[in-house]
Amino acid sequence: CMIVYQNQNSGKKYHFWSSSSENYSIAAHLHDYTEVVYVKSGCLTVKLDSERYDVHAGEAVIVLPHRVHEYINESGNSVCGVIFSNGFVPIFFEKIGNTLPENPVYRVSDETLWTEKLKSIDRKDYLNIASFLYEALADAERNILWVEKKTGNGELIQEAINFISDNFRENITLSDLAKKLGYNEKYLSYTLHTVTNMNFRRLLSSYRINFAKELISPKNKKVSMVDAALASGFSSLASFNRNFREIE
Q1: DSSP secondary structure string for all residues of 186-212
Q2: Range scoring the smallest mean pLDDT among 43-47, 62-66, 121-125, 148-152
Q3: What is the torsional sign of CA 234, 219, 246, 165?
């Protein structure tokens, strides 16, 4: 199935979303934000890039930005989780640096963090949110083995998506990406499509459209559609409209 780039979970400096769910499942997707899902009962299966993990009751899984992931319900589960922009917790990302979890599933030290404290969060109080997130991420950091990123398809796609995320407003091409990463253009294109089921152009357009949507939000009444399209990296309003119809 088509992997979805979640525009709604991208772009904002301070975004926090939480929910609880029974028999949770969601198709393969990726986004700019970090996600942590805690399993209260049952088992949740997670596919992260090309690996598969089972998350049992009392365990959580952390998904870092730009990772292709899918949640599967095979035997019933009850979960709760959070998705948040990285601006809330800069110290966490400074600490983990250029590492990834060897295994993103970990045993939660204090279940009340998810069963009680999460429910009491004031979503208008950013300091309250940051306090909760730092407590949750400190638990993850302590109970996960963090290892240096290794070369592989998952890491290659991570680097490709990072490049697009950093440069989507510029006139970048697949050739630019291949040169930046030091890979053959055809190999990179094949790997990108194989892992994400999206080609370079669709990924690039997704980032540009998300940025444009922020520019033309009600709070930015002075920004015209043409200005938003050009500022987002599109060559014209017609190009923006065409890509918007395809993706949205």
Answers
A1: HHHHHHHHHHHS--HHHHHHHHHHHHH
A2: 148-152
A3: positive
